[in-house]
Amino acid sequence: MKPGLIAFFTITSLIALPAVAEVSYEIDLTEPEHQLAQVKINFPQAEGQLTVNLPVWRTGKYQVLPLADGVRMFNALDEDGKPLTWQRTASGEWQISLPEPTEVEVRYQIHGDLLGKRVRHIDASHAYLDASGVFMYSPRFRDEPVTVDLDVPRGWKSYSGMASSRRHRFVAPNYDVLVDSPIETGISQHRTFDANGREYELVVWGEGNYDLDQIEADLTALSGTAAALWDDYPFERYVYMVHATAGERGATEHLNSTVIQRPRFSFRERQDYLGFIATAAHEFIHTWNVKAYRPSGLVPYEYQGENMSQLLWLAEGSTSYFQYQLLLRAGIATPEEFFADLAKRIDRHLNNPGREQQSVAEASETAWISSGGDYAINHSVNIYSEGYLTSLALDFSLLEQTKLAHSYRDVHRALYRDHRLPAGYTVAQVQHILQQLSGQDYRPWWQHHVNSPLSLDFTALLQQAGLRFSYGEDDKVTASMGVMLADDSLTLAHVQRGGPAWQAGLHAGDQLVAINGLRLESARFDKRIADFQPGDKLDVTLFSNDKLKTLSLTLGETHSGKAQIRALAGASEQQKAFLTAWLGIDWPFDAKGAFIR
Hints:
The protein is an alpha+beta fold. Strands 1, 2, 3, 4, 5, 9, 11 and 12 form an eight-stranded mixed β-sheet that branches. Strands 6-7-8-13-10 form a five-stranded antiparallel β-sheet, with no helix packed on it. A five-stranded mixed β-sheet has the order 14-15-16-18-17, covered by helices on one side.
């Protein structure tokens, strides 16, 4: 072929290559005092009709939310700035008519008042922006590259797990990365550190009684423990965002970052700080378990509806199971603190009537509609706490079946290795991994522990690791009505199914007035019940549906001691080896059974 002809075909081929269809976002935050922002989106050329959506839920919270309620002044323009006709077809959906092919500009106002939902918050000091509640997308262009430009007040600094091409600008390969990479912009404290060859940032918004040096040191130690579970990292850079708030609490995992919210004066006390750093560990683990591999029912995310799966317990409960183990390996939590947390979880399980009624598989399916409260306690379980104990049982089973050669950590290594996104995993695939590791068919185990209400013999279970569960040597059996009161009142918040009050006909919402004809005080309710013995009969006067009535009940019993886990007397070397294989630490007790400090 002649050189000139080659040049012709080369130039012609380059001209024929389609241009990259980029979606660009701009958000104006220059007047944050009233929690308002102006959003502008430029979509590539489209024809016929363009559908744009704001998600109806955000990742990390399996619940449909009214995210589009904060949207006002929606408008759509063609590439010449002329208005386009549109109609709203669902709470989070707008359809724009396109008489001819054109690029489309969408504009709207957003109200940032959902700090506690970790979706969007705007005030004079900062803005927290989770794209699921801020930036609309079009399914047609969901896979196209995006840019986000922020116009912010003077002195603000912007951070995100996304790459930044310039100040206050972030870029992502598609909307899925944008929606999983929140932005924190404003007045904040900032630290950087390295661990295991990865870069980390710590961004703290809000004043509080935290020690920034301690947080940085502990996050550095925590971030370096990932090798205990996985062989590599799904990120090069990770951002820990911390909000010290006026009361909001919670946390959300993301693709390359997390946001953790705590009341501003709940960092200094040891138990408060353990709660914070355990939450950080939980969200960090999610970077693998959920963000790198997750149940197939959540792949890909369906932003406009529920994403159903029987495996949410594995995504959330197993993350809870590993969080304190990482703190233990990192030297942040002591063995005594680890076992105190485990004892508390076992105690809550044993005192939860719902454990007899709902399986963890069913709880995974109903997570989207779970609302908590009295009925939930009596008839349901939680995917976090019940998923934790299911993970514990599965871990102990694997250790036993393989003679300590494999543990539940190996299951998650296999999920990360073989079922990374966009693959996802199914129940059958998890069972296959278990069979490969153990040589055993785990379908019967699954039916008994996952598809049925969980029933564990904690005495036998813990004995394998040389441990015992109890309520302490000073435990006494004391009287109980089987109720919980609403804060600072005599209104019943919960009546335990099958308990004394339940059998007598009391229910949540009733207001206690007197026992045996003597007036009750909310502040002294527990002490008043302690005046009696299990088996005593009481006449309880109360208001029920505004009617005054008196009912008779027979008191039940409860433990006065604190749940605890201690060493079995004379624990064998085999039991000690089991504990080491389980937790990756040496036997933590001395010859007398006390914790080695």
